[in-house]
Amino acid sequence: MIYEFRTYDIKPGSLAEVEKRFGEAYEFRKTLSPLAAFWHTEIGPLNQIIHVWPYKDLEERAKVRAAAYKSGQWPPKTGEFLTAQRTEIFVPAPFSPEITPGKTGPYFEMRTYTYAPGALPNVMENWGKALPDRIKLSPLVFCGYTELGGLNKWLHIWAYPTLDARNNTRDKAKDAGIWPPSAVAAKTGAKSIPYVMQENKIVMPAKFSPVQ
Questions:
Q1: 203: closest CA among 36, 14, 31, 45?
Q2: What domain range includes position 189?
Q3: Cis peptide, bond prior to residue 97, ω within 30 of zero
Q4: How many domains does the chain have?
């Protein structure tokens, strides 16, 4: 499975109308393939929407998108509000959960780390060891790496009921010495390759997002 993360920058003050038009158009689009999630930024780079589409592979993605455009009912009529668009294809890590419908938020933290080329196998090894203890404190929504788009990126998404819960959970994990994976690796003498860049944002779901 692959996930396409499409991030659009929109004009200030346009979010309500963008989500309204997107939600209306999605009633048709979901007959071809469903959304995994639709979020807008709350903290971090503001005036962004992120829509996430799961596909079996790139061939299925191409077929679905061609059918959607051919219908004349897609994409949503939001072009007048868009200032930038970018898309990335992510492959889930072997231990990543699928992004499934349900209420786990409503606050979601998206953390993107960029590593030097060749570092991702080391990242996944350390994550695989540290993750079982970490997810006892809060649910992991997704983690994976880029296949197309900005390469050498590692994305992990966590769900929290409140922002205070997010802060408390991160403090607990750090104090217990079970997170981050690099700290766990250091205790065992395992190798840990540092990232070269970090990005972070808090996002919240639209009403029609399968993940809430």
A1: 45
A2: 2-205
A3: no
A4: 1
Contact 38, 209 (CB under 8 A): yes
Tokens found for residue 150: 């900005």
- Which domain CATH number covers 69? 3.30.70.100
Return d(Cα 5, Cα 26) in angstroms, integer: 16
pTM for the full model?
Answer: 0.96
> Considering the domain boundaries, does residue 123 fall inside one?
yes
**Short-list 50, 31, 30, CA closest to 40:** 50
Contact residues for 157 (Cβ-Cβ < 8 A; gap 6+) = 108, 109, 110, 111, 140, 141, 142, 143
**pLDDT digits 0-9 by tens, 64-78:** 999 999 999 999 999
DSSP string, 186-206: HHHT---PPPSEEEEEEEEE-
Q: How far apart are the C-alpha atoms of 88 and 203, rounded to whole Å?
A: 17
Per-residue pLDDT reduced to its tens digit, 95-116: 999 999 999 999 999 999 999 9
Spatial distance between the Cα atoms of 92 and 156, rounded to a whole number of angstroms: 10
